[in-house]
Amino acid sequence: MNNQFKSVVLLAATLVVGFALGLFADASLVRGRRDRITEIRRPPGFVAHMESVIEPHSDAQRDSIRPILENAARQNGEVMRSANDRFKATLDSMRFSLNPMLDQGQRERLSHEIDRMPPFGPGGGRGRGRGGPPGGFGRGGPPTVGDRPPPP
Question: Is 58 helix (H, G, I), strand (E, B) or coil?
Answer without folding.
Answer: coil
